[in-house]
């Protein structure tokens, strides 16, 4: 059941045919972020293993640290103390910031596109209404002119 779930999540994030490029990119970046957080958690535990004053000593702690680092929350409860641990932290930060920026941009583009399409439909409807009114007025003028011409 679990592999099927991940397959569906992957398909939703990057696989649909008709989706725009910015949504596919944001979905791909989200997948990369999750992989970087998972791998970064393992890498930071490995880098910090045996280091003096290390507090990232287990995978669950490191996973929590990678989530708060990627989201730039950074409570300060866990942090790397070795140079390699800090390199891993920098990678997690950059990927996290980039991903959240891409997702935010994709959502903003989607909202703007919807509004543009709505405005385009409203403009088209106004144009059609104006054309219909002009046709009615022309028809009324012809009727009035025809009645007057018949009375004279």
UniProtKB/TrEMBL annotation:
Membrane-topology descriptor: Multi-pass membrane protein
Pfam family name, one: Ion_trans_2
Protein's cellular compartments: Membrane
Domain of life: Bacteria
Gene3D superfamilies on file: 1.10.287.70, 1.20.5.110, ATP synthase delta/epsilon subunit, C-terminal domain
UniProt keyword Transmembrane present: yes
Transmembrane segments annotated in the record for this chain: 21-45, 87-112
Predominant cellular place of this UniProt entry's protein: membrane
SUPFAM superfamilies linked to this entry: Voltage-gated potassium channels
Keywords: Ion channel, Ion transport, Membrane, Transmembrane, Transmembrane helix, Transport
Database matches in InterPro entries: K_chnl_dom (IPR013099), VG_K_chnl (IPR028325)
Domain named Potassium channel: residues: 33-111
Protein name: Potassium channel family protein
Source species of the chain: Streptomyces albidocamelliae
């Amino acid at each position: 059941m679990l592999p099927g779930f991940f397959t569906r999540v992957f398909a939703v994030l990057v696989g649909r045919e008709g989706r725009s490029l910015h949504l596919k990119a944001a979905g791909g970046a989200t997948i990369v972020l999750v992989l970087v957080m998972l791998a970064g958690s393992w890498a930071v535990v490995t880098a910090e293993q045996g280091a003096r004053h290390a507090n990232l000593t287990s995978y669950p702690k490191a996973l929590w640290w990678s989530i708060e680092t990627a989201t730039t929350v950074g409570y300060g409860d866990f942090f790397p103390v070795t140079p390699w641990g800090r390199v891993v932290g920098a990678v997690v930060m950059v990927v996290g910031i980039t991903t959240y920026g891409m997702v935010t941009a994709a959502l903003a583009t989607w909202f703007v596109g919807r509004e543009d399409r709505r405005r385009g439909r409203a403009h088209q409807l106004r144009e059609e209404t104006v054309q219909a009114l002009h046709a009615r007025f022309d028809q009324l003028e012809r009727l009035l002119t025809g009645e007057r011409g018949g009375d004279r």
